[in-house]
Amino acid sequence: MQRDGTHMDSDGEIRKASTSRGQTNLDFAIGISLFLGVLIFIFLFVPGLLSPFTASAQEQTVSADRAADHLTKSVLGSPRDPYSLRTHCTVQFFNGSAGCEFSDAPLAEQLGLDPATQSAKVTVVGNASSTVTADDTLCWDASDDALVPSTACPNAAGNANVNLTRGGPVPTDNEATVTALRVVWLNGTDVTVIVEVW
Q1: What is the sign, positive or negative, of the torsion defined by CA atoms of 69, 71, 77, 78?
Q2: pLDDT tens sequence across 67-78
Q3: How many other CB atoms are there within 10 angstroms of residue 60's CB atom?
Q4: Radius of gyration of the chain (CA)
Q5: pTM of the predicted model as reported, rounded to 2 decimal places
Q6: Which of 85, 128, 129, 146 has fewest C-beta within 10 Å?
Q7: Do 71 and 111 meet the contact criterion of CB atoms below 8 Å apart?
Q8: Beta strands 178-186; 189-197: pairing state
Q9: Surface-to-core class of residue 153, CB atoms within 10 Å of its CB (0-12 exposed, 13-18 middle, 19+ buried)
């Protein structure tokens, strides 16, 4: 082979050598495999990078637990005697009036949630008598100063009876609804405080 890129073949003729190289099947297979591998990596990896910035049920779980602890350990109870609710504070809270450790702000705000993006419902359930189940919502009967099932609690405009539930209805089609439960002592009875956040 000469410096000018020519060479002499077996017939004695001078031919110019080709300086370009053809693509082989192996080159094509390696290139396509590399391209597809990078493309699959991007589709699998990029959503993971963005997931900390999207809302998830994990945030709701933390919020529900924090709200339940806040209610049962400080707002309705006492830090010195957690999970033992003060009756007058509990009645005021579910009545929606200001008192004890809270204001008359919306429920989500009182629980330390973001009212623009989170909603909540708080319910007290329990076995107030031998004829009801442990899942019955309770009511404070002001005339007897006792907890009774909400079905047995007359709620006329003139009386001071208070259903121990507060907040809007829980949406049935929302997958991000999280429930936190706390078993507490209220007016001599074991009851369960249910905090639902969505």
Answers
A1: positive
A2: 888 888 888 888
A3: 22
A4: 35
A5: 0.63
A6: 129
A7: yes
A8: antiparallel
A9: buried
